[in-house]
Specification:
Layout lengths: L1 H25 L1
Length: 27
């Protein structure tokens, strides 16, 4: 399970910038 959590965390870390920019645009 740890590996799965780490993978999710890595994905979030990689997508954070794009998601934040998209969220700001949506708001």
């Amino acid at each position: 399970m740890a590996s799965t959590v780490e993978t999710i965390v890595e994905q979030i870390s990689n997508m954070t910038a794009l998601e934040l920019s998209e969220l700001k645009t949506a708001l």
